[in-house]
Specification:
Helices cover 41% and strands 17% of the residues. The chain is built from 14 helices and 15 strands. The strands form 3 sheets. A 7-stranded mixed sheet has the order 4-10-9-8-7-5-6, with helices on both faces. The chain has a 4-stranded mixed sheet with strand order 1-2-3-13.
């Protein structure tokens, strides 16, 4: 089918909820994808931090094939071996003692919000239910996770939102202290704000947040949907900061490309969820758990991939910083940890994303002016070089255009 026809049918039959680029991706291997016309792209989006070990990784493909031949889905009324194995792997490699499986990051955050309120009402008081979130955060699009999201642009048109949420600036301890009240039960935040523009906390911010939670008997919920599964060079981002959350949510990279989310917590906190209090029909079914096991085992194998992520992240940052130093009037700041990297511009980033697409690179823009890079963790120096050379060329063209416009206006 011709690409024009495919796009026409897409627009005809699908709801208009995405600003899609005019290409149709049909194949992927490793860090590369190909469109319906055979054009190759190096993928620095990675399904938005999903394809952590690359597209169609052989271990994931084989795991899915084998599991599909054996058992695809059964209800959680019964014990499921791949689910148990995956939960055991997650517990063994994190702070957690218990796991709940669902289908997405939004669902994981929804479960975390319910769990925090249920825990507080069980062990404290009925009126202790408020949750503090941070401005510019992103936690999902279900009603509770949308309300927890500290960005009005996502909430507009869906009011009234749910009661019981307050917002404070990210990386501001004083504002957090001033907002805590007798009704507060939990604080939810991302260790690094991804959708909000790859905002990284300063110094001991997360450690101080953790201490405040302990002092006030509040639950600390870390949304590691984007930062988890090796994205920052550690399996989970909290490991960088010398803290342990009470509740953690993960998704995106967990399944290496198949939809699965999870909530991780301690034995005591988990105890307030009983049969009937929360559930998910597809949560942790045999097929997705098989893929997640293959993904997690690959990330953990010999520690190579995590080390590689740290090295490539450092290399990538250095290359982008050099671009910033040469074009400070175009590039405002470069920041990141591991392979979650943002380049903030002094201009809107959409046109640069489009220019990269035309040259065979998939990148993403978030928060209007921040180019966000979340490639597969298997990305190599040569691919980073190709992108940064291309970015430099594109930015040089924009600089020349700006200078031309400035001179023209003076005349």
């Amino acid at each position: 089918m011709e690409i024009a026809k495919i796009i026409e049918e897409s627009q005809r039959f699908l709801m208009n909820t995405y600003n899609r680029f005019p290409i149709v991706l049909v194949k992927g291997r490793g860090t590369r994808v190909w469109d319906s016309e055979g054009k190759e792209y190096i993928d620095f989006v990675g399904g938005v931090a999903v394809n952590v070990i690359g597209h169609c990784h052989p271990k994931i493909v084989v795991a899915l094939q084998k599991q599909a031949q054996r058992l695809i889905h059964v209800s959680n009324f019964y014990h499921i071996e791949p689910q148990i194995k995956l939960a055991k792997l997650l517990v063994k490699n994190s702070f957690a003692e218990k796991v709940f499986f669902c289908n997405s990051g939004a669902e994981a955050n929804e479960a975390a919000i319910k769990l925090a309120r249920k825990y507080s009402k069980t062990f404290f008081r009925e009126d202790r239910y408020e949750i503090i979130s941070t401005l510019n955060s992103f936690h999902g699009r279900t009603f509770a996770s949308l309300t927890a999201t500290g960005q009005e642009k996502f909430q507009k048109g869906f009011e009234p939102l749910l009661p019981g949420f307050k917002y404070v600036p990210f990386d501001n301890i004083d504002a957090l202290k001033d907002t805590i009240s007798s009704k507060t039960c939990a604080i939810i935040l991302e260790p690094i704000q991804g959708e909000g523009g790859v905002k990284i906390p300063s110094g001991d911010y997360l450690k101080r947040v953790s201490q405040i939670c302990k002092e006030n008997k509040l639950l600390l919920i870390l949304d590691e949907v984007q930062t988890g599964m090796g994205r920052t060079g550690k399996l989970f981002a909290y490991e960088h900061y010398g803290i342990k959350p009470d509740i953690m949510t993960i998704a995106k990279g967990l399944g290496g490309g198949v939809p699965i989310g999870a909530l991780l917590t301690t034995e005591k906190i988990a105890s307030v969820f009983e049969p009937g209090t929360h559930a998910s029909t597809f949560g942790g079914n045999p097929l997705v758990c098989a893929a997640a096991i293959a993904t997690l085992e690959t990330i953990l194998e010999d520690g190579y991939l995590l080390d590689h992520c740290r090295r490539m992240g450092k290399y990538f940052l250095e290359k982008l910083v050099k671009i910033k130093e040469k074009y400070p009037e175009i590039v405002y700041e470069v920041r990141g940890k591991g392979l979650l990297i943002g380049m903030e511009l002094t201009m809107e980033g959409a046109s640069i994303v489009k220019a990269c697409l035309e040259r065979g690179f998939l990148i993403n823009c978030t928060a209007g002016k921040v180019l966000r890079f979340t490639p597969p963790l298997i990305i190599v120096e040569e691919e980073i070089d190709k992108l940064t050379i291309t970015l430099k060329e594109i930015i040089e063209q924009y600089r020349e255009k700006r200078l031309f416009n400035t001179v023209g206006s003076l005349n």
